[in-house]
Amino acid sequence: MASAPNVRPLESVKRHRRETLRALTLPAIFIAVLIIVFVLSLVIPGSPFRLREQVQVNIIANWMLMCFVLCPVVLCLFPIYVILMASTFGLNWLHNVSARNLRRAQTASRTIADRTANVSEDFSRRSANFNVRFAFIDALINIFDRYSREESENAHDSKHE
User: Fold this and answer.
1) Hey, how many other C-beta atoms are within 10 angstroms of the C-beta on 40?
2) Which distant-in-sequence residues (6+ apart) come within 8 Å of 67 by Cβ?
3) Are 66 and 57 in contact (CB under 8 A)?
4) Is the pTM of the predicted complex or chain greater than 0.70?
5) Can you give the pLDDT at residue 157?
6) 51 in Cβ contact with 60 (< 8 Å)
7) pLDDT digits 0-9 by tens, 59-70
8) CA dihedral sign, ordered 149, 154, 155, 157
9) DSSP assignments along 38-81, one per residue
10) Which residues lie below 8 Å from residue 130, measured CB to CB, with a gap of 6+?
11) Model confidence at 26, in pLDDT bands (50, 70, 90)?
């Protein structure tokens, strides 16, 4: 394998790195140093801005909490909030889109259930009418069963006596 040739960074890349350092990194460092100097000036005993009462210290503590804890938390959780809101609107849209088709399916299901109930009710009514019309035939057919039942009961009673 051939080794990679030594390539020196281009002048434009060097300039871009310097500008990035100057534009992004130095202001961030400057602001951090400024905050540290400000807080130390409030705490150092010989400072003319020294806080002398507990209430004043609480104000600074609350301000530091907001700057270094709450603001970063809000910034970090904001994308999650946006995603959750977008998913809420998306689910609402899906609900509205699917509602029409689901209502159609619900109506079809209800219609089928009503037709099934009507057919079974009609069948029950016809079966009952058929049984009423031919009840006398059942009595004729079962006439011999009555005698055999009575005989078997008599025979059964006589065995147990």
Assistant:
1) 11
2) 35
3) no
4) no
5) 62
6) yes
7) 777 887 888 888
8) positive
9) HHHHHHSTT-TT---SHHHHHHHHHHHHIIIIIHHHHHHHHHHH
10) none
11) confident
